[in-house]
Amino acid sequence: AIFVSSHVNSAANAPEANGIEVYYAKGNNENYYGTTSKALATSVLNSMLSSTEAFSRGVKVESHLVTRTSLMPAILVELGFISNEEEIKKLIDEDYQELLAEGIVEGILAHYGKVKVPDRRELAEKMVAKEVGEEKAKEYIDEVWE
């Protein structure tokens, strides 16, 4: 299980800004699923760059709501800049859209074999333990788990 959110970027004050960037939340980068959000972000970015030959803006850390609240590895992909006159021409081209989609899919597939869905109780204990410590987390989960 992974989460991928795709977006189109904009920078009205920087009309020359261009390229693809992929974000993950630092708070959602544990190895609970056998891999990290950062590793998924890197795999998807590299694949997208290979398929599109776009400019790389890199893998970045940001606390977007959709990535920070996910329990599974989660990324937010910025496909390009709608505020860049040249890039918007590519973004509306069906062939380029297909290259973007292929890049995302290939990046996911290259990484997907590493994903292991954890036991839900174990995952809950680990997540609660980050807040209250291992012993209290186990006690709490034992009380509320059905």
Structural summary, described in words:
Helix content is 48%, strand content 18%. β2, α1 and β3 form a beta-alpha-beta unit. The chain contains 6 helices and 4 strands. It has 146 residues and is α/β, with parallel strands linked by helices. α1 (37-52) packs antiparallel against α4 (94-112) and α5 crosses α6 (134-144). The chain has a 4-stranded mixed β-sheet with strand order 1-4-2-3.
Protein topology:
Elements: E1 3-9, E2 20-24, H1 37-52, E3 56-61, H2 65-68, E4 74-81, H3 85-91, H4 94-112, H5 120-132, H6 134-144
Parallel strand pairs: 1-4, 2-3
Antiparallel strand pairs: 2-4
What descriptive keywords fit this protein?
single chain; 146 residues; alpha/beta; four-stranded mixed beta sheet; 6 helices; 48% helix; 18% strand; elongated
- Output the radius of gyration: 18 Å
The amount of helix comes to 40-55%
For the sheet with most strands, the description reads:
4 strands, mixed
Structural class of the secondary elements?
A: alpha/beta
How many beta-strand elements?
Answer: 4
- What is the residue-averaged pLDDT? 92
Termini, distance in Å?
23 Å
Shape: elongated
Task: Note poorly predicted spans.
Answer: none
Read across the widest sheet, the strand sequence of neighbours is 1-4-2-3
Strand content: 15-25%
| SSE pattern, N- to C-terminal | EEHEHEHHHH
Tally of helical runs? 6
